[in-house]
Design goal:
This protein is of the alpha/beta class. It has one domain: TIM Barrel, CATH 3.20.20.10. Helix content is 42%, strand content 18%. It has 9 helices and 8 strands. Strands 7-6-5-4-3-2-1-8 form an 8-stranded parallel beta sheet. Helix 4 crosses helix 5. The chain is globular, with a radius of gyration of 17 Å. The relative contact order is 0.15. Bound molecules: pyridoxal-5'-phosphate. Pyridoxal-5'-phosphate (PLP) binds next to strand 8 and helix 9. The site of pyridoxal-5'-phosphate (PLP) has 12 residues, from strand 8 and helix 9.
Length: 221
């Protein structure tokens, strides 16, 4: 019962050791974790949660609606899910094409703008979602016409590899791209990168929003 609190404490201690604890937003990734575990994190003060699967997330949101939480959608987006995502989340990290952005924008009418990140396919793997880096600026400028979207940042999932050189090259390209984009689009202030096994490296390369799941909640069910 103590472990989720301990895990969050360890995570915070690691951020403090980098002198970054106040600059970094921790998105606690609760996909495939029980509401009971989420409650333990809430009791420790965690308010920001990330979910990948819409139906699973909606059920948890219903159970936990008495708490003042901020929900981030971090999974791939199918067009028929856009409306419910727009209505039930404050952030979407995985915008990678115009059609999805438009649908979310349309469904968000009458509500405060939704915060979005553009997902970059930094490793250029065919199986991965995300826009290729050469198409990023084009997509970002097309999003300007959508008044219900607030472009807040860039998101990426670097290669899952032990090849440190390859990984460092991807992180370097990300941080360079982030600083270029931040200069051009004034609303951009978040680099969403870093998971349980690479968040320290990500922070080293400028990440200020990390998405940590198993390090907080343990192995997924
Ligand atoms: C599952 C997931 C995470 C968290 O992964 P862990 O390795 O459990 O920390 C972060 N980001 C995305 C996009 C995910 O799908």
């Amino acid at each position: 019962m103590l472990s989720i609190k301990n895990n969050l404490e360890t995570l915070k201690q690691n951020l403090i050791s980098l002198n970054k604890d106040s600059d970094i937003t921790i998105v606690a990734v609760s996909k495939q974790q029980t509401t009971d575990k989420i409650l333990q994190a809430i009791n420790y003060g965690q308010k920001i949660f990330g979910e990948n699967y819409l139906q699973e997330a909606l059920k948890k949101q219903e159970v936990l609606k008495a708490h003042d939480l901020e929900w981030h959608f971090i999974g791939p987006i199918q067009s028929n899910k856009c409306k419910l995502i727009a209505e039930n989340f404050s952030w979407v990290h995985t915008i990678d094409r115009l059609k999805i952005a438009k649908r979310i924008n349309d469904a968000r009418r009458g509500m405060p703008p939704i915060n979005i990140c553009i997902q970059i396919n930094i490793s250029r793997e065919k199986t991965k979602s995300g826009v290729l880096i050469e198409n990023l600026d084009n997509l970002a400028s097309e999003l300007k016409e959508f008044s219900n979207l607030n472009l807040r940042g860039l998101m990426a999932i670097p290669s899952n590899t032990f090849d440190e050189e390859k990984l460092t090259a991807e992180f370097d390209l990300l941080s360079e791209t982030y600083s270029l984009m931040r200069n051009k689009y004034i609303t951009i202030d978040k680099l969403s990168v870093g998971m349980s096994n690479d968040y320290m490296k990500a922070i080293h390369h400028g990440a200020n929003m990390i998405r940590v799941g198993s390090n907080i909640f343990g192995v997924r069910e």
